[in-house]
Write a structure and sequence with these properties.
By secondary structure, the chain is an alpha/beta fold. The protein folds into 2 domains: about 70 residues, Multidrug-efflux Transporter Regulator, Chain: A, Domain 2; about 140 residues, Response regulator (Rossmann fold, 3-Layer(aba) Sandwich). Helices cover about 45% and strands about 15% of the residues. The strands form 2 sheets. A 6-stranded mixed β-sheet has the order 4-6-5-7-8-9, sandwiched between helices. A 3-stranded antiparallel β-sheet has the order 1-3-2. Helix 2 packs across helix 3. The longest helix is centred in the C-terminal third of the chain and has 18 residues. The radius of gyration is 23 Å and the shape is globular.
Length: about 220
């Protein structure tokens, strides 16, 4: 007697098993599937594809297909974000993201920003991939970024941010040890981003943050103490 009688029901089961195996072995995703997996918008997926952050190709119909391998690299990248401060009203706090790969400077940022008078809500990351993910999730008002960070360097990050209208309200400040000549040789920084030299002037950074905090408070109808 056959262990697998030739019935329509068995045939359907075998087809279902084959389909499940194909799903497990799927090597590409649509933009909407990638957006769902990475918890970002479809527009962000398209932008990351266009800038080379995600590997993809286009079908004859013009639809993007993103490699699952590149999605997995982003998905399984271990974040190094550190929350530094909380607020009684997180929605109204000034949100600051720091992207810096030097451990000593990250510690310095943590120490100084913790004592800023507006009590900002701060995250610190050590590479460009974590920074891009944090920007999508954290929605910072202010970004301090070094140009020489691993994963996705500051030059590419700024190009990505510069092409995205939804981040137009975010102020990005480059804090770098590179000379203006070195920056120009590597493609330059978009004109709408402020560039400050290292060593870091925290007095200058605080003045920028204070101005943004006052603007945010004004828009919310609050008074800054």
């Amino acid at each position: 007697m056959s262990l697998f009688p030739d019935t329509a029901e068995n045939g359907l089961c075998l087809v279902d098993m084959a389909n499940n195996d194909l799903k497990k072995q799927k090597i590409f995703c649509t933009t909407s599937e990638a957006a769902e997996i990475l918890s970002i918008s479809v527009g962000t997926v398209q932008l990351w594809v266009d800038t080379g952050l995600l590997e993809a190709w286009k079908t004859p119909g013009g639809h993007r297909r993103i490699t699952r391998e590149s999605i997995n690299r982003m998905l399984h990248h271990k974040p190094a974000a550190v929350a530094l401060a909380t607020s009684e009203q997180p929605g109204g706090a000034l949100r600051v993201l720091v992207a810096e790969d030097d451990a000593d400077l990250r510690l310095l940022y943590q120490t100084v920003l913790r004592h800023w008078p507006m009590g900002p809500l701060v995250e610190v990351v050590d590479n460009g991939i974590d920074a891009l993910m944090a920007i999508e999730r954290f929605r910072p008002d202010l970004l301090f970024i070094d140009l020489d960070i691993p994963g996705v360097d500051g030059f590419q990050m700024l190009k990505i941010l510069n092409g995205k209208a939804e981040h137009a309200g975010m102020t990005a400040v480059v804090v770098t040890g590179l000379s203006r000549a070195d920056i120009a040789l590597r493609g330059g920084v978009p004109a709408n981003f402020l560039v400050l030299p290292k060593p870091i002037s925290f007095e200058k950074l605080l003045s920028i943050a204070s101005a943004l905090w006052e603007l945010k408070a004004h828009r919310a109808g609050r008074t800054v103490a």
